[in-house]
Design a protein that fits this description.
By secondary structure, the chain is an alpha/beta fold. It has eleven helices and nine strands. The structure holds aspartic acid. Aspartic acid (ASP) binds next to helix 6.
């Protein structure tokens, strides 16, 4: 397969720790309230085959804060509905003048296939159950606003690991930067094999084991749209794994609570956990903008 164009961001797994730290440093210099014309005259196409609120809007605001023009192409309402293939869509967007394509797609690997075909950078905004690299970067960015370093930090990721591209990207990033990750959930959602995602990752079925001594409690949405075929009793899930304020007390007193969104109040977390002082969920959303500014600037060599 061809190489992706320089500046592409397809996953976290293939990046070195130093590159991740450079991106995080660059994000710290970005401020959407002080726009910089680094990408003036550039066209950023947001190609979304799946629904999105946070990722799409923050990429758009990030691109505009850097002076770029944005074009949104969604599966519904475009020729994708008429059966146009991924690669033909890529060629079309290139022909109209895209300088970078941000793509979200339900198939794992779609961003890499697109990147191998085109001579412009491609940014993965979530591909199937594979990776969501910008979410992992904004998660690390958020953690580092509250903790000195990722080295030695204990992070518990709880819930629907198996369907989560966020969990995969987070495991890679946190492991590369020296954190210890504990994955927790029932076997259908957190299989033992998940421990092989990255070094330093382990799996537990016991919430108490995951929470004791943890610095970061990261909750994941139970992805109901991907549960068909799995025998999951959601009531049992709530009984054993739902995060409540009482359970949160098992974590360190200064632990922070994170969730990539969208949240299901009353399922993976009780509503009052989402609103408690330890919750950093909206901060994560906010941090998506400077992080994506850094990713777009890197894509176009700035
Ligand atoms: N928004 C995240 C994603 O697109 C997480 C989720 O959907 O649960 O992967």
């Amino acid at each position: 397969m061809e190489e992706a164009a320089r500046g592409s961001l397809l996953d976290i797994e293939s990046l070195e720790a130093a590159e991740l730290l450079t991106l995080l440093r660059s994000a710290r210099r970005m401020n959407p309230l002080r726009p910089r014309p680094l990408l003036r005259g550039k066209r950023v196409v947001l190609l979304f085959y799946e629904s999105s609120t946070r990722t799409r809007s923050s990429f758009e605001i990030a691109a505009k804060s850097l002076g770029a023009q944005t074009v949104l192409v969604q599966a519904s309402g475009s020729s994708i509905e008429k059966g146009e293939s991924l690669l033909d869509t890529g060629d079309t967007l290139r022909a109209v003048g895209a300088d970078v394509i941000v793509i979200r797609h339900p198939s794992s690997g779609a961003a890499r296939v697109m990147a191998a075909h085109l001579d412009i950078p491609v940014i993965n905004a979530g591909d199937g159950m594979h990776e969501h690299p910008t979410q992992a970067l904004l998660d690390a960015y958020t953690i580092l606003q509250h903790k000195k370093s990722l080295k030695g930090l204990q992070v518990a990721i709880i819930g629907d690991i198996v369907h989560s591209r966020v969990a995969r990207s987070d495991c890679h990033l946190l492991s590369k930067l020296g954190a210890k990750v504990v994955l927790c959930g029932p076997p259908e959602l957190a299989p033992d094999l998940a421990a092989t995602i990255a070094p330093g990752v382990r799996v537990t079925r016991h919430l108490e084991d995951a929470l004791r001594g943890t610095d970061v409690v990261m909750l994941l949405r139970v992805q109901k749209e991907r549960l068909a075929g799995l025998k999951i009793d959601l009531n049992q899930y709530i009984v054993r794994y739902q995060m409540t304020l009482a359970r949160l007390k098992l974590a360190r007193r200064d632990a922070i609570v994170m969730h990539p969104g969208p949240i299901n109040r009353g399922l993976e977390l009780a509503g009052d956990v989402a609103d408690c002082p330890q919750a950093r969920i909206l901060e994560q959303v906010r941090n998506g903008v400077p992080v994506r500014m850094a990713v777009l600037a890197r894509a176009l060599g700035k």
